[in-house]
Amino acid sequence: MASTADIRNGLCIKHNHDIYKIIEFLHVKPGKGPAFVRTKLKSLTNGKVLDNTFSAGHKIDVVRVETHTFQFLYAEGTEFYFMNTESFEQITLNKDVLDAPDLLKEGTNVMVQINTETDLPLSVDMPASIILEVTYTEPGVKGNTATNATKPAKVETGASVNVPLFINEGDKIKIDTASGAYMERVKE
């Protein structure tokens, strides 16, 4: 058993007969009244996110997890296939478990958290950013850049990302996997 002092991002806990991963947390010490911890929890079974407040010192049930590096092999419908880079063991995960399945490119390494009690995969942590090639976008109009204007672009995985007007087809761009937003153009 742990307490609210042990809460950190990425911690997996049992709460309300389900397993949740802590996405965000904030320790709050108001001037009047007891301290508490405001958290944002993501269910590892159905992907729903809920806000929860724990009072300071509240006991939480931590789930022991191991983290392993897996390589994304391919997707077939809603099933995504991964291979452990050390043991070459393959696992299949549903699309709902992944945070940004539309940004996954074949060969990408991800971190998979596995419950040590049941040996079942709990969550998949994508790399912080991923570099993808733009396959389709409208050409930018010269002189139309007075503001921070953006246009939609399709990348090689099929995802749609808003990019600045100067991005053209064939350009490689860096995308933030947490928000799915354009970060920068990558020169080769």
Description:
- The protein has 188 residues and is mostly beta strands.
- It folds into three domains: 2-62, Roll (SH3 type barrels); 65-125, Nucleic acid-binding proteins (OB fold (Dihydrolipoamide Acetyltransferase, E2P)); 129-186, Beta Barrel (OB fold (Dihydrolipoamide Acetyltransferase, E2P)).
- It has no helices and 16 strands.
- It has strands spanning 2-3, 12-15, 18-28, 36-43, 49-55, 59-62, 65-76, 79-84, 90-94, 109-115, 121-125, 129-137, 150-155, 160-164, 172-176, 181-186.
- It has a six-stranded antiparallel sheet, with no helix packed on it. Strands 9-8-7-10-11 form a five-stranded antiparallel sheet, with no helix packed on it.
- The N and C termini lie far apart (50 Å).
